[in-house]
Amino acid sequence: MPAPLCLVTNKDGVLALNPAALAVLQEVAQPVVVVAIAGPYRTGKSFLMNRLAQKRTGFPLGPTVQAETKGIWMWCLPHPCRPGVMLVLLDTEGLGDPKKGDSHNDAWIFTLALLLSSTLVYNSIGTIDQKALEHLELVTQLSELIRVRDGDKEGSNSVEREDEAEDCEFVRFFPNFVWVVRDFTLELRVGERPISEDEYLEQVLELKHGHGRKVQSYNGTRLCLRNYFPTRKCFVLPPPLGTEECGRMEELPEAALAPRFLQQAAQFCNYVLSSTWPKTLPDGRALSGRGKGRMEGGKRGRGVMMVTQRTTRGAL
């Protein structure tokens, strides 16, 4: 693909597949590695996806407060590290856009990105504080938005069971989780002891003891992240350059970007590209673009996780 295509449109709060993009995906016979990115709007998600594509431009970037990406955009490229494998990058609409003001629609977009991907990158700004975790409260809604359906029972006379998936069932389908914290300026240190980026994330996700309402509220998002994403990684990226130039990073030469930012961005790309494996079915078979296209088009495979239309009209 010379440029990304919109895979899932988002118009008036209704998500729908774009037939043109689906047709492109169904032509991919190779196994697919799918990397999706999600996070608050105007935080530089598209820039990171262009870095994964090893391109200066591709997914649109914008210097203004207006959100650029709507729905979910797809870019299929040969995997730079694995011959015979297709890299599928999914750039999603930013969460919390004040002009949209629809948290239920945000939850659907996040859920679709999660289910379609082998690795889900969550991109945020500043630090992993309580506000950042509140943006991720939608992970606590996943049990309401997703059910596991056993395809072996379809076509039989028995009534198909669609009980809400338990945490252990979610893990079978969920991707690896990578949290990227942009414009990070703090020292990774606890007292006098330096800590790694992963230790920083794990400290933030530590649970409080107790059973009161405040404790349950504090632990809710943290517990879901710990249970749903047992494989998780953290990267912190310093500011790339001066604030006046940040909005037009794709127009600047590499030499204009801060060396530490480039180093961290390269480590992020190397990790994602080397550690993300092709999307697989429950029986271990690698999923091709054709198989993924059939799933997205509505055909059900064995043990496929279904998105259910329960709380909003944003389901596919």
TrEMBL record:
Every GB1/RHD3-type G domain range: 29-277
InterPro entries, sorted: G_GB1_RHD3_dom, Guanylate-bd_N, P-loop_NTPase
Pfam families per the UniProt record, alphabetical: GBP
Keyword field contains Signal: no
PROSITE patterns named among the record's database cross-references: G_GB1_RHD3
Keyword Metal-binding in record: no
Family that this chain belongs to: Belongs to the TRAFAC class dynamin-like GTPase superfamily. GB1/RHD3 GTPase family.
Name recorded for this polypeptide: GB1/RHD3-type G domain-containing protein
Organism the protein comes from: Bambusicola thoracicus (Chinese bamboo-partridge)
